[in-house]
Design brief:
binds fe (ii) ion; Ferritin; 255 residues; single chain
C-alpha cells in the first residue's frame, strides 16, 4: 500500500527516450512502405457486431402476479422485462459496491492518516447502505414477479464493468486518493443509474417502487458528496506533502 504518488523514474512515456521512440514508431504500419494487414481490426469488430448473439435474455415472470403484470404491461405498450433487467443490473452493481467498501474498510485497518471527517464508521455506514440497496432490488424484483437469483443481461455486463473497479480498489500499490477515486467512479454511476431506474418505474406506474428508489437516490447523492469531500482533502494532502518533497531534494525518491 502506498501513501501517495512520489517522484520517480517512470519510463513509460515516449519522451523519456526520443531516439528510441523514433525507432519504435518507424515500425508502425502507418509508414507508407509498411505492409497493411489484409483484415483490419475494425473489419473484425464489425463482423462480430453483425454476428453476435445478445448477452442474454429475460425469461417470463415466475409468478402468476408477474405473468398477469407482464401481459398487462405488454398490452399497454410497456415492457416489464426492461425494468426487471435494469433492476437486476442495479442489484449487481450495489453488490459490487458493497464489496468495494469492504475492500476500503480492510485498507483503513492499516491506513495511518485519513482525510478530516473520514471515519471508519462513516465508511461502514455507506457499505451497509449499498448492501441495503441490493436487498431493496431483490425485494423489488420479487414484487414484480421476477427471479432475484437470475443473472439478467444488463446484470451480466454490470459484473464485467465492476471487475475493473474491483481490481483497482484491491490493487495493493494504490494510494488512498486512488482508492477514493475508484469509489467515486462507482458512486457517480450509482446516482445516474438510480435516476434512470426511477424514470422507468415511473413510466410503468410502479409508484411504490418509485418512492423506495427515490430514498435510495437520496442516500447515493450523500455518498457522492462524502466521497468527493474525502478525495478533495486527500488530494490536498498529496499536494502539500509533494510540496514538502519538492522543496527538499534530499527527500526525493529516486525510484
Ligand atoms: Fe453508493
Amino acid at each position: 500500500m502506498q501513501d501517495r504518488i512520489t517522484l520517480g523514474m517512470n519510463r513509460t512515456g515516449l519522451r523519456t527516450s526520443p531516439m528510441e521512440a523514433e525507432a519504435m514508431l518507424s515500425g508502425l504500419p502507418m509508414q507508407e512502405d509498411a505492409p497493411m494487414p489484409e483484415i483490419g481490426l475494425e473489419d473484425i469488430r464489425a463482423q462480430y457486431l453483425e454476428e453476435s448473439e445478445p448477452v442474454g435474455s429475460m425469461p417470463p415472470p415466475t409468478t402468476l402476479k408477474g405473468v398477469v403484470g407482464t401481459v398487462a404491461e405488454t398490452l399497454s405498450g410497456n415492457r416489464l422485462h426492461v425494468l426487471l433487467d435494469k433492476i437486476g443490473e442495479r442489484a449487481a452493481y450495489e453488490r459490487s459496491g458493497t464489496r468495494l467498501y469492504d475492500a476500503m474498510l480492510q485498507r483503513l485497518a492499516t491506513e495511518t492518516a485519513l482525510p478530516e471527517g473520514m471515519t471508519r464508521e462513516l465508511v461502514e455506514e455507506i457499505r451497509d447502505e449499498e448492501a441495503r440497496h441490493f436487498a431493496l432490488c431483490v425485494e423489488a424484483i420479487e414484487k414484480l414477479g421476477g427471479d432475484p437469483t437470475l443473472q439478467t443481461p444488463c446484470a451480466d455486463l454490470a459484473g464485467v464493468q465492476g471487475m475493473g473497479l474491483m481490481q483497482a480498489i484491491n490493487d495493493p500499490r494504490a494510494t488512498l486518493s486512488q482508492a477514493l477515486q475508484t469509489l467515486l467512479a462507482a458512486e457517480v454511476i450509482d446516482v445516474a443509474s438510480w435516476e434512470l431506474l426511477i424514470e422507468l418505474a415511473t413510466q410503468l406506474g410502479r409508484d411504490e417502487l418509485v418512492t423506495q428508489f427515490n430514498d435510495a437516490l437520496t442516500r447515493e447523492n450523500e455518498h457522492v458528496a462524502r466521497v468527493t469531500g474525502w478525495l478533495r482533502l486527500s488530494l490536498q494532502a498529496d499536494l502539500s506533502l509533494s510540496g514538502d518533497m519538492d522543496s527538499d531534494p534530499d527527500t526525493r525518491r529516486a525510484t
